[in-house]
Structures are given as structure tokens and as C-alpha cells.
TrEMBL record:
Endonuclease that is involved in the suppression of homologous recombination and thus may have a key role in the control of bacterial genetic diversity. Acts as a ribosome collision sensor, splitting the ribosome into its 2 subunits. Detects stalled/collided 70S ribosomes which it binds and splits by an ATP-hydrolysis driven conformational change. Acts upstream of the ribosome quality control system (RQC), a ribosome-associated complex that mediates the extraction of incompletely synthesized nascent chains from stalled ribosomes and their subsequent degradation. Probably generates substrates for RQC. SMART domains: MUTSac, MUTSd, SMR. This is Endonuclease MutS2. GO terms for biological process: mismatch repair; negative regulation of DNA recombination; rescue of stalled ribosome. Keywords: ATP-binding, Coiled coil, DNA-binding, Endonuclease, Hydrolase, Nuclease, Nucleotide-binding, RNA-binding, rRNA-binding. It comes from Clostridium frigidicarnis. Residues 713-788 form the Smr domain. CDD domains: ABC_MutS2. ATP binds at residues 332-339.
């Protein structure tokens, strides 16, 4: 890709913004080297890895790059056999730790989505935890070695501490005994040796070695002779400590050297990952998407936004080219957004071809171009004595020399800066020459001749930037298929130019040109109205679909409630009948007891008849209830073990496990339960009624099974009201499906959506408790709900 296009389209500004999201200077260097890849395969590969990193950021939060530094100098020194400084060793250990933790970060469970590109990259990471542990045990700070680094160092430091304590005690005694000769009653240290401040006039009173004097000369810092041996011992211990530290650093450096290949390889992978996640974080900041890439020269950017314009004011533009036409001529007033449109097309292509997400809507596509040429902006050069026209033409000559069918060419104000007639003729000729080579072209112009050229030439299409004459302001919206109108007369009239001057101007223009301009105005008005109507129709269609789905769900819910209510009523009726039967039996039992106490056998016979009559009535009512649940089903005449039948009371298909006993009861398998039921309560699965019932049950079971598969719901991009509605519906389905724990993905953002969801979960009847996601679950971007 030519450097001029990258500079003109300001790709360097995108790279500077991306650097803010890196953790190491090594990743910044990779960003500096970033430019469009040379094959479509590479482009797709790098877009996928950026998209995967974006997904991981959303699901698992930031990657484990804490404490990561650029350690290229330390690795280079270690590979040459040099001794590393403590901070270099510590940073290498941190790099190894980040690489090892990243393998855990990217690891997934069986039901989680694959991240093939990143997983493939991480396969090369080799964990060297033993080296990590040795370094972290020995070094506790960038300039501090731990006492635990070796037993020798520990003993030296312990002895040194004891000696220092002895010296301090002894020097304090000397201060007390010689206080009258001292400037101050305290000791100090000069050259790692303990000394006392003696007045210059009393230097003979305190025998010892003079190490220093004050700036005024009034004080001498003397090491008393009684401290010399102790100070010598301390100095020897300090030299031993230094030697031991050097030995430890040499040992650890040798360990790094032994694992030089793995350390170097891990560092390259972790810096590459830092670079990839910087791309993903930048993509997240611009609400980027991964476009599809083709090699046919066709692109369709839907609602594309220039990434360097404030997202609050940028106007999205839908731009497409390459299928119905290969050249686009954009016209319209100055400051209307023509140049921004060209830069948006060029910059979004360069970003996508460099493996970056682009700020556009999903389903957008870009084309793989081997070269993108851009002639945009004022190229006037004082040093080369070139006018604007000459400079543009010099650039255009280079473009014509190199452009081919695999090139995208962007011209801003083609042919401007010279005589309009000659400039327009040149512009048409340049466009026609490149079109015949099958180059893909987007050009802006003010010349009416180019509008006519686009109308007359196959494969060339007009476009314009919309201008609101009422407000005298551009709307920055791009209208493809409609040539732009200059609006000079309307603007001048609204600004107060006299009517007679405007009419005189119109008389100087041919009637054909005026009719052409009026035709353009009519086309613009019709296009704008059609687009507004289309947007309104799409909005209404969306509302109707939403209402339809809502009512279908409500109807299904009502039907389910009705069926459940009927089943529950029948169960309750059977329960009441059983209770009544038990009560009747108890009454008869009590009567028998009374009979023993004096009632006659005739009274007993009458009671038995009454009991039998009551039992027959109860069983008749119970049979009626059972039959009503499946009145079209056939009773079972012959029973075989393993036979499938319907149990209407449970509205479920069951399997017979035993033959009938003396009570005419059989044991059946209903799901995971085994229950005893009366044979007369079972029905054959035979005929239309039974098959429909089985199908209805299977359909309900299948629907429940499908709904039970999802263990998470994604709310990103929804407002609070819609998210709460979707979550409430999802929790109902999860509860029915028997899920114990579900994940609600709301993203981090400002926290408004998370607070709304947590407030709803606090009151939800199905939720036992909830918590924010932990590391590996999505962090603050996910709430985990435990269901009752």
C-alpha cells in the first residue's frame, strides 16, 4: 500500500489512538509497523483474531496483562550470557506469568465458543513456572533481593544486623562519655562507617580516623579507634552480601539463558496478544464490527462513520460500489460532506485491510484492494513551485501509471484549479480511462459535465450530498443515484440577493441546463420522500412484528394456563373424592365399633349397604373425572410389560413395568418417577386422538428441551426496559427447564443496565440470589443468577 494514501487518509492518527490501549512499548512498535496486508487470506485471519479478542473482552473482561513490560533488552542480554539486573529478571518473570495466565484466560469449557485464531496463537506458549517461582522468591522489588534468595545471604544479613546493633550500642556509649567534645550527641555514617561529630578544637581528645569535616570546618567526623574493628567487620559482611547477590543474579540469569528460546517465544506471543487486544479495545471504543471481505471489488458500507469525527455529531453514510456500477461521481455544495465521504470509504477500507474493526453496521462488506490511491486536499507546494492544479495533476499522473482492476481510486474535486471547460473535459477523460481498466473509482466534483457523463455512461453512477435550502445547511447525508444540485440561486435568494439579479443570471444559462437542475431537484425531493416513507414503513413493520410476537406469546401463555388449570382442578377433585372416601370408611369403622357395643346384625347389614352405595357413587364420580381427561381414549384390555400408554391424570405418556395385581393396579414409569396407578385410569395410545395428544406432549417436551439449552442471555445493545422484559421471559423459561444457575450478559458500560437488571433480580420470584461474574465468567459485565 502506497504511503501517500495512508498519510492523506490519516491512518497514522488511528494508530496513535490505538497505542493508548497497549501495555508494552513492543506492542506500540507493532502498531507503528501496521499497514494493510498483502492478501485477502491474511486480512480475514487478522480480522477474525481481532473479533475473537473483542468477544473475550466482553465475556471475560481485560486479559491478564498486569505488570507486563517490554523486556526485549533483558532477553537480548540474557541470550548473550550477560548478568541481568534485578528489575530485568523481575520483568521477565512477570512476562512469563502473564503468558501462563493467558492460557488460563483463553481456556474454555466444552460448551463455550471456540476462539480458533487466538487459541492457535496461544498453543505456542510454554509455561516455565519453575523459573517464575525462583525469580519471584529471590527478588521482591526492582532493586531489592529477598533474604530467602539463599541460606548464605540470609545468614550474612542476620550477622550484619547483629553487628550493626552492637556498633550502635558501642557508639552510643562513646557519645555519652565524650559528649563535652562533640558538636551534637548523635552518630552518623560516612562511607558505610559509623562516626561521631567532634568539635575541631577537641580533635586530639577523641583518638580515631578522620573521615570528613563540615563545610564550615568547625566539625570533624571521626571514627573512634574502638569502632575500627567493628566497622571493618561490617564492611566485610557488606562485601560478602554484594558478592552473594551477584552470584544469585548470575545464577538466575543463567536459568533464563537455559530457557532462552521459550522465554523469547513467549515474549513474542504475549506482545502479539497485547497488540491484538489493543485493536479489539479500539474497535470497542468506536462500536466497530467485523466486515466481510471479498476479492470481487464490491463493497457495501452500511451506516459507515468516520472514526476521527466526534461520534456525537458524525452523520452515518451508506456507500456501495462494484456490483451495479464501478464508478461513483459525488456532487454537491462546498462543506456538504463530499470529502468526508471519500475519506470514510478510503479509511474504513485501510482499517479493515489492516485487521481492524470498522465503525459501521453489521452486514457491511469491504473489498480487498491491492492498492488504494487518494488525491484529496490542497497539494500546493511552494518548494517545488507547483500550483494546486499542477500538484494534483502530478499525483494523478502517478495514479494513472499504477492503477489497475485491483485498485480503489479516490479523487477529490477532479479537474479543479484550472479553466472549468478544460478541467471538466480532463476529468471525464481521466475517469473514462480508469473505468476502462475496471478500476473502482469514487470522485467528487462541481462540474455539471460529470453529472451528465455519469447519467450517460454505463457502470458510472451519480451521487450527491443533501443540502437543506430552508436552513442553508448541509445534512451530510449521501444520496446515491441522484446528481447534486448547486442550489446557488436558492441560497442567494434566501441571503437577500435582489430578484432581478437572479432572473438575469438565469437568462444567461441555457434552458436545457435549467431544466436539468429542476429535474435534479425533483429527483431529490422524491428520493428523500421515498426514503422517509421507507424508514417509516420499516419502523411500522418492526412495531407490528413486535406486537404480533407479543400477542402470540400471550395467547400461548393463556392456553398453557387454561390447560394447567383444568388439570389442577381435576387433581383437586380427585383429592376431594379420596378424602371423602376415607372419611366414609372411618365413619363405617366407627359404626362397627358401636355395633360391637350393642347394635344388631341387621343394623350392620344396613350400614354395609349404605357404605357400598356411597363407595359406588364415589367411584362413579372418580371414573367420570378420569374419563373426562381423555374421553376419546380406549381402555386397556390386555396388559404387557413395556407397553406404552397414556396417563391422562398427568397428561403424559408412561411405560408399564408390572402386570396388574389383585387391586387391578400396575406400576408405571413416568419420566424419572415410578408410580402405582389403577389399570382403568390408563388409556391406549391408538387412533387420532391419542396420536395428537402424544405429538402435543412431544412438541411441548421438545420446546422445553430447546429452551433449556441456553445457559445465558445477552442484553448488550438493549435499553433498560427491553432488557428487563427479555430477562424476565428468559428466567421463566430457565426456571421451567430446571436450570440451577444462569448468566445474564449486560456488559460494563456506564452501569445503568447492570443496576436495572440487579434491581429486577432482587424482586424476581424465581431468583434465590445473584452475584457479579468472577474472573473467567465476564467480571462486572455479567451477573450470575441462582434459581430456586
Amino acid at each position: 500500500m502506497n504511503e501517500k494514501a495512508l498519510k492523506v487518509l490519516e491512518f497514522n492518527k488511528i494508530k496513535e489512538i490505538m497505542k493508548k490501549y497497549t501495555a508494552t512499548s513492543a506492542a506500540k512498535d507493532l502498531i507503528d509497523e501496521l499497514k494493510p496486508y498483502s492478501s485477502a487470506y491474511e486480512v480475514i485471519h487478522h480480522l477474525k483474531e481481532t473479533e475473537e479478542a473483542f468477544q473475550l473482552l466482553v465475556k471475560k473482561g481485560n486479559p491478564p496483562f498486569e505488570g507486563l513490560y517490554d523486556v526485549r533488552d533483558g532477553i537480548e542480554r540474557a541470550t548473550k550470557g550477560g548478568v541481568l539486573m534485578p528489575y530485568q529478571l523481575l520483568r521477565i518473570a512477570n512476562m512469563l506469568k502473564s503468558a501462563r495466565r493467558f492460557k488460563d484466560y483463553i481456556g474454555r469449557k466444552e460448551d463455550e465458543e471456540k476462539h480458533e485464531e487466538l487459541e492457535s496463537l496461544c498453543d505456542g506458549i510454554v509455561a516455565i513456572k519453575a523459573l517464575e517461582d525462583e525469580i519471584f522468591l529471590a527478588i521482591i522489588g526492582e532493586e531489592e533481593i529477598s533474604d530467602k534468595a539463599s541460606s548464605t545471604l540470609y545468614n550474612i544479613r542476620r550477622t550484619l544486623k547483629e553487628k550493626n546493633s552492637s556498633v550502635r550500642d558501642k557508639v552510643n556509649d562513646m557519645i555519652r562519655s565524650n559528649s563535652k567534645y562533640l558538636q551534637d550527641n548523635l552518630y552518623t555514617i560516612r562511607g558505610d562507617r559509623y562516626v561521631i561529630p567532634v568539635k575541631a578544637e577537641h580533635k586530639g581528645a577523641v583518638p580515631g580516623l578522620v573521615h570528613d569535616q563540615s563545610s564550615s570546618g568547625a566539625t570533624l567526623f571521626i571514627e573512634p579507634m574502638g569502632l575500627v574493628n567493628l566497622n571493618n567487620e561490617i564492611r566485610e559482611l557488606m562485601l560478602k552480601e554484594k558478592a552473594e547477590i551477584e552470584r544469585i543474579l548470575a545464577y538466575l540469569s543463567e536459568k533464563v539463558y537455559e530457557h532462552a528460546f521459550e522465554v523469547k517465544n513467549n515474549s513474542k506471543i504475549i506482545w502479539e496478544l497485547d497488540f491484538i487486544f489493543a485493536k479489539a479495545k479500539y474497535g470497542s471504543s468506536i462500536n466497530g464490527i467485523m466486515p466481510s471481505v471479498n476479492e470481487k471489488g464490491i463493497f457495501n458500507i452500511i451506516d459507515g462513520r468516520h472514526p476521527l469525527i466526534d461520534p456525537k455529531i458524525v452523520v452515518p453514510a451508506t456507500i456501495y460500489l462494484g456490483e451495479e456500477f464501478t464508478s461513483l461521481v459525488v456532487t454537491g455544495p462546498n462543506t456538504g460532506g463530499k470529502t468526508v465521504t471519500l475519506k470514510t470509504v478510503g479509511l474504513l477500507h485501510i482499517m479493515a485491510l489492516s485487521g481492524l474493526l470498522i465503525p459501521a453496521r453489521s452486514q457491511s462488506s469491504v473489498a480487498f484492494y491491492e492498492e488504494i490511491f487518494a488525491d484529496i486536499g490542497d497539494e500546493q507546494s511552494i518548494e517545488q513551485s507547483l500550483s494546486t492544479f499542477s500538484s494534483h495533476m502530478t499525483n494523478i499522473v502517478k495514479i494513472i501509471d499504477k492503477a489497475d482492476e485491483n485498485s480503489l481510486v479516490l479523487f477529490d474535486e477532479l479537474g479543479a484549479g484550472t479553466d472549468p471547460t478544460e478541467g471538466a473535459a480532463l476529468a471525464v477523460s481521466i475517469l473514462e480511462s480508469l473505468r476502462k481498466r475496471n478500476c473502482k473509482i469514487a470522485a467528487t466534483t462541481h462540474y455539471s459535465e460529470l453529472k451528465a457523463y455519469a447519467l450517460e455512461t454505463s457502470g458510472v453512477e451519480n451521487a450527491s450530498v443533501e443540502f437543506d435550502v430552508e436552513t442553508l445547511r448541509p445534512t451530510y447525508r449521501l444520496l446515491i443515484g441522484i446528481p447534486g444540485k448547486s442550489n446557488a440561486f436558492e441560497i442567494s435568494k434566501r441571503l437577500g440577493l435582489p430578484e432581478y439579479i437572479i432572473e438575469g443570471s438565469k437568462n444567461l444559462i441555457s434552458k436545457e441546463n435549467l431544466r436539468f437542475e429542476d429535474l435534479i431537484e425533483q429527483l431529490q425531493e422524491k428520493s428523500i420522500k421515498a426514503e422517509k416513507d421507507a424508514r417509516a414503513a420499516a419502523r411500522l413493520k418492526g412495531n407490528i412484528e413486535e406486537m404480533k410476537n407479543d400477542y402470540e406469546e400471550k395467547l400461548q401463555g393463556i392456553q398453557n394456563i387454561r390447560e394447567n388449570a383444568i388439570v389442577e382442578a381435576k387433581r383437586e377433585a380427585r383429592s376431594l373424592l379420596r378424602d371423602a372416601k376415607d372419611e366414609a370408611d372411618q365413619i363405617l369403622k366407627d359404626m362397627r365399633d358401636l355395633e360391637k357395643m350393642g347394635y344388631s346384625s341387621q343394623a350392620r347389614t344396613m350400614l354395609e349397604e349404605q357404605r357400598k352405595s356411597l363407595k359406588d357413587k364415589l367411584e362413579k364420580h372418580e371414573e367420570k373425572i378420569s374419563l373426562s381427561s381423555n374421553d376419546k381414549g380406549k381402555e386397556i384390555n390386555e396388559v404387557t410389560v413395556g407397553m406404552e400408554v397414556m396417563l391422562p391424570s398427568l397428561n403424559q405418556k408412561v411405560t408399564i413395568l408390572t402386570l396388574p395385581d389383585n387391586k387391578k393396579e400396575v406400576q408405571v414409569q413416568a419420566g424419572i418417577m415410578k408410580v402405582n396407578v389403577k389399570l382403568k385410569d390408563l388409556r391406549m395410545i391408538d387412533g387420532n386422538s391419542s396420536s395428537k395428544q402424544v405429538k402435543r406432549t412431544q412438541k411441548r417436551e421438545m420446546k422445553l428441551k430447546v429452551k433449556s439449552v441456553a445457559t445465558s442471555v445477552d442484553l448488550r445493545g438493549m435499553d433498560s426496559e427491553e432488557a428487563c422484559y427479555v430477562t424476565d421471559k428468559y428466567l421463566d423459561e430457565a426456571y421451567v427447564a430446571g436450570l440451577g444457575e444462569v448468566s445474564i450478559i449486560h456488559g460494563k458500560g456506564t452501569g445503568i443496565l447492570r443496576n436495572a437488571i440487579n434491581d429486577m433480580l432482587r424482586r424476581h420470584p424465581h431468583v434465590k440470589n445473584y452475584r457479579l461474574g468472577e474472573y473467567g465468567e465476564g467480571g462486572n459485565g455479567v451477573t450470575v443468577a441462582i434459581l430456586k
